[in-house]
Amino acid sequence: MWIWYKVLYALIVVIGGLAYGLLLGGISRKITARLQGRKGPTVFQNYIDLIKLLRKRTAITHGVMFFLAPMFRLLGGIGVLLLVPIVAKNTVLSNFSFGGDLIVVLYFMVFGCLGMALGAADSGHPHAALAPTRGLAQMAGYELPFLLSVIGLAIAHNTVSLGKLVAAQQGGILHWNLFQYPFLSIAGLIAMLGMYMAYPFAVVLAPQEIAVGPPTEYNSTFLSFMFTGRSIFGVGKYVLFMDLFLGGATNLVEAFVKTFVLFLFVVFISNVFPRYRTEQAVRFFWTYPLVIGLIDFIRIFIK
User: Fold this and answer.
1) Residues 79, 108: Cα–Cα separation, whole Å
2) Whether pLDDT at 207 is above 70
3) Which of 140, 194, 223, 292 has the most C-beta neighbours closer than 10 Å?
4) What b/e sequence results for 83-117 when a residue is b if at least 16 CB atoms lie within 10 Å of its CB, and e otherwise?
5) Domains of the chain, residue spans
């Protein structure tokens, strides 16, 4: 009977994460529209789009990997969301975290990206490899400062458990890693912008430049899986960065506030800066955030 409670809980977390992710996506579209002097769609437009896509069907036939890629994306997002503790001290809301969950989360974070890259090979489009090539190049760029940040924090606190990382940051705002290790945190937060493909790092879709990429290749139910996976994955990453740098959360209200602040950080940065080219984005990640993160990384070893 206990296993069914776990399944039910996992289902509630996934549905809740999806609903929150769709809402954040709608708010992002509304903020962007307002900043551009437009009225923009309603904040609930993403819910409408998802229902519309789920009702559609396609007669297009491609390779098996093309159809599996959206599932890779979806499962990667679900894996991250279910492993990161939402409220670390709460027995239920700590999710399915365990002693070495941080390592597994890092694997899940690249799971969806690699699946989409493999799916492009079976799409039949002559330029299908363009977006995944850009995406993998940028992933190689932001993963280096992000891993530096994560490894530095793991060494500093002598743990690869997200729950223990959150526990080490309790005792007040000055105990957060954001203030204890500001340079590692800055490197990680800059890498976060690349993970969300936010401007200036929106090199995959590049809407002003090319009309190819997953939203063009996929349609109907397959696009809805991608849409769902992106929303869930987005929420999972916000919770992860909250646990890593902002001291985690002691209740759901605090979790909502902190993840929403991270969301606003991504949205406003995205609306201020123009887009980099792929090589510019990779060069940026391998210089500024990497060098900034090394300051705290070296300080940790000196201790």
Assistant:
1) 6
2) no
3) 194
4) bbbbbbeeeebbbbbeeebbebbbebbebbbbbbb
5) 2-302
Angle at 151 between CA 302 and CA 275, to 5 degrees: 115
DSSP state of 276: P
Residue 205: pLDDT band with limits 50, 70, 90: low
Residue 181: predicted pLDDT: 92
Whether the Cβ atoms of residue 50 and residue 230 lie closer than 8 Å to each other? no
Q: pLDDT band at 258, cuts 50/70/90? A: very high
- Which residues have a Cβ under 8 Å from the Cβ of 189 and sit 6 or more positions away? 241, 245, 265
User: How many whole angstroms separate alpha carbon 208 and alpha carbon 46?
Assistant: 22
CA distance 197 to 252: 27
Which residues, 6+ apart, have CB-to-CB distance to 211 below 8 Å?
Answer: none
Q: How far apart are CA 46 and CA 19, in angstroms?
A: 10
Instruction: For the full predicted model, state whether its pTM sits above 0.85.
Output: yes
Of residues 73, 63, 90, 96, the one with CA closest to residue 21: 73
How many residues would you count in the chain?
303
Tens digits of residue pLDDT in 76-108:
888 888 888 888 776 667 777 777 888 888 888
Give the contacts of 7 (CB within 8 A, at least 6 positions apart).
none
